[in-house]
Specification:
alpha/beta, Rossmann fold, UDP-galactose 4-epimerase, domain 1, 2 domains, two-stranded parallel sheet, 11 helices, 35% helix, 17% strand
Length: 341
């Protein structure tokens, strides 16, 4: 599939954090973008600025509705499949959400592509969670056996398997990206967002960390993520099924993330630890040590502009700068400078 021949692209989950940033990149490159999102996780406000664009369409659609999805797929040539549950902890409290929103929804999309004349390529955002607690760090794409420790990770691995099956049986082209933790100022979940909310709730006086704070992970800045999705995902490969790890080459532990945020906000904050897990992890399904090998995608010409530490710092600074009055943004009862070191 030649990138110059692509005109109409479907983005499932386009109203989410990664999706809304992806839309900007695709429209800037001249593609026509249709977003299908049922707005349970994604927010309409994330795509409001695109609604008047001539090359943009929005359809409020649950991917469990196969009939409407089939009609949407007929009008597109490539799918960026970002839709699904993206919060690891959710699966512990509701074991069905990952099954239906990730596995069943992906199967429905693949079926719609199978019967479509034009829509024959899928770019799927998977996750580092499919590796589970890998014994090889950094972890390469051919690592195995794969033993995810969360419902989220297992559902994403099941989606990869379905995509592989459809690629092998029906000739659908597929590019799978196993992403590290993606961060950016417009994200509404994840460690940075959670820490900001907790600081607001405590009036900046204390910050609760789940686990012992020594969990080490790789973080990927949103701009680097989008660069991989667009510039690598749309390429044509000799094989019709490719997998790439996407992440930074370093790690940062949770304690350091907390200290970075506290320092950037000029707070004097007590750090507290709260976890029912005895092995230091923050929750059931939390992978304590994650770092991906990115040698394969680097050979394609991609590289990060931000390390994990820089991704955390840059995101924090931009979140603080969004509004000049930190009291207004974070809800402190008193101004942050009253806690300054």
């Amino acid at each position: 599939m030649n990138a110059t021949r692509l005109h109409r692209i479907l983005v499932t989950g386009g109203a989410g954090f990664i999706g809304s940033n992806l839309i900007t990149a695709l429209l800037n490159r001249g593609y026509h973008v249709t977003v299908a999102d049922h707005l349970s996780v994604g927010k309409k406000q994330n795509i409001d600025l695109f609604l008047s664009h001539d090359n943009f369409d929005f359809i409020e659609l649950d991917l469990l509705d196969r009939n409407i999805l089939k009609e949407v797929a007929k009008k597109c040539e490539l799918v960026f499949h970002l839709s699904g549950n993206s919060i690891v902890k959710t699966g512990y409290h509701n074991s069905e959400i990952d099954f239906f929103n990730n596995i069943v929804a992906t199967r429905n999309l693949l079926e719609s592509m199978r019967t479509s004349e034009n829509c024959k390529k899928i770019v799927f955002t998977s996750t580092s969670a499919i590796y589970g607690e890998a014994q090889i760090i950094p972890t390469p794409e051919d690592y195995g056996p794969l033993k995810p420790i969360s419902m989220y990770g297992s559902s994403k691995l099941a989606c990869e398997s379905l995509i592989s099956g459809y690629a092998g049986t029906f000739g659908i082209e597929a590019v799978i990206f196993r992403l590290a933790n993606v961060v950016g100022p417009s994200s509404k979940h994840g460690v940075i967002f959670d820490f900001f909310n907790k600081l607001a709730q405590s009036d900046g006086k204390y910050l609760e960390i789940l686990g012992n704070g020594t969990q080490k992970k790789s973080y990927l800045y949103i701009d680097d993520c989008i660069d991989a999705l667009v510039n690598i995902g749309i390429r044509r490969f000799e094989s019709n099924f490719e997998i790439f790890n996407v992440g930074s080459d370093d790690q940062i532990d949770t304690n350091s993330i907390a200290q970075t945020i506290i320092a950037e906000m000029g707070l004097r904050t007590e750090i507290r630890y709260a976890s029912q897990q005895t092995d230091g992890r923050g929750w059931i399904g939390d992978v304590k040590n994650m770092l991906l090998s990115t040698e394969k995608i680097k050979k394609m010409g991609w590289n990060t502009n931000y390390t994990s530490k820089e991704s955390i710092s840059h995101t924090t600074k931009k979140m603080i700068a969004d509004k000049p009055n930190a009291t207004e943004k974070f809800g402190f009862k008193s101004a942050p400078h009253s806690f300054a070191l």
